[in-house]
Write a structure and sequence with these properties.
Oligomer: single chain
CATH superfamily: Ribosomal protein L30/S12
Shape: globular
Structural class: alpha+beta
Distance between the termini: 16 Å
Order of helices and strands: HEHEHEHE
Radius of gyration: 11 Å
Strand order of the largest sheet: 1-4-2-3
CATH architecture: 2-Layer Sandwich
Helix content: 40-55%
Strand content: 15-25%
Length: about 80
């Protein structure tokens, strides 16, 4: 399951702004982006992750990503900060 690492994480970011900050600060271990999200929202996250050598996992839906982050709504991106 693609979400297993995210669900088990001690600390994670939820949402594009938090995820981008974690990437820029070098705290993100792995980044998840939802395929259904607007490209202008997730593209900077993908580019920043690639530049820093952080793995990016594309998942099927925003709703499933939100549930994996233990929230009731969908989210475009998330990251594992501490395992």
């Amino acid at each position: 399951m693609a979400y297993k690492r995210l669900m088990a994480a001690k600390k994670r970011t939820v949402g594009s702004k938090e995820t981008l900050k974690a990437i820029e600060k070098g705290r993100a271990k792995v980044v998840y982006v939802a395929q259904g999200a607007d490209r202008h929202v997730i593209e900077p996250i993908i580019q920043a992750s690639t530049a820093k050598g952080i793995p990016v996992i594309e998942v099927d839906s925003m709703l499933a990503l939100g549930k994996a982050c233990h929230i009731e709504v969908g989210c475009a991106s998330a990251a594992v900060v501490e395992e």
